[in-house]
Amino acid sequence: MAATTRVFAARVAGLAVFGPDGESIGKVRDVVAGLRAAGQPPRILGLVMEMAARRRIFVPMLRVVRVEPNAVTLATGSVNTRQFHQRPNEVLVLGQLLDAKVTLAATGASAVLVDAALEQTRTRDWRISRLAVRERTGRLGRRGPVQVVEWDQITGLAAAELTDRPQGVAQLLALLDTMRAVDVASTLHELPAKRRYEVAEALDDERLADVVEELPEDDQKDLIGHLGEDRAADVLEAMSPDDAADLLAELPEVDKNRLLELMEPAESAPVKRLLAYSADTAGGLMTPEPVVLGPDATIAEALAMVRNAELPVALASMVFVCRPPSATPTGRYLGCVHIQRLLREPPSTLVAGALDTTLASLPPTATLAEVTRYFAAYNLVCGPVLDDQEHLIGAVTVDDVLDHLLPENWRESGLPDDRNSPDAPKASDDA
Predict the structure, then answer these.
(1) Domain region containing 242
(2) I want to staple 347 with a disulfide (CB 3.0 to 4.6 A). Which of 158, 300, 355, 368 is the partner?
(3) How many domains does the chain have?
(4) What is the average per-residue pLDDT within 111-132?
């Protein structure tokens, strides 16, 4: 497929990146440009590429040999695999330029930047040659036509203006809408604080809650602190109770108590129960919302519940059967049914007839080490947590365990970027 010498930035987002031998390396997440003085078009310095385990690295444009409609190919050589961090003279084209408010030099009209054309010059350098902008009509509900102009035909994209001026998020949200919450979290983590706040304010509560759950701890606390009490309480209500409890446990006591007061009682009650346990015990790790059915439910009903697309995969692996009430803490725990057993039984069979009553349970006081050994011994991804009266109070999933076994900064996926250091780790790419 023929390479192109001009491509719009929004078309680059998400493109697969391949090494010279055709091996898949990662995906493009953003484009890094260097702003220049006197109205000169910015040079494209490189791409932000996301590798496995969400590590985002910087790939210089000199390493890019082909940009095709569905892929980017790199030249032979090594790539610095240190985590990308933006430098003061750099701007993220997708994260910071899109939605910027600009002025058309010829008419003085206000416009919004909706895309940027990346073009390769005769010297094989890349630059932003043209901009797609939409004039702001000022009429409610009306959008002006998109026009493509040269870089020197607009003003308003100086570094200081991007830092200080409020900015829309419509174009950036359109890109983020195609991404998983974990990838959106990685994108927000790399953005400057001002831009991160603008995006967070524009996301609805449910989507923001999903993203906050995937952010590093410091970013979580920073965003919750920025949102204001009422919005923060709404987002906490939309989060999984165990994630909300983990976040609240890191806040000052006065802030934690205030947010719990603002949450709806039905939403704050399970969070308060989790906060009563140490974070490194089964009680602190568990979710209070596993799949629970009564003994007279059918296999068909159980399968319908685990098919719920919003249910985490680990929780969908097991159905817990208890006497009423079915909300945690439940009535007497009777046993569990593994999803493989559900798939083998006739749909009309009662779950009571497919129970595993031999699987050991966890007490809420079990330590992290004990929980880890439990999962390893029984080859599970989900396990029940029972109180002294044999009531189901929650379930621990393997992802909860991994979150606490990995280093505290594992979500940041690597060491600080040092692109010029001879000691920086390299990928032999081959990659």
Answers:
(1) 170-278
(2) 300
(3) 2
(4) 91
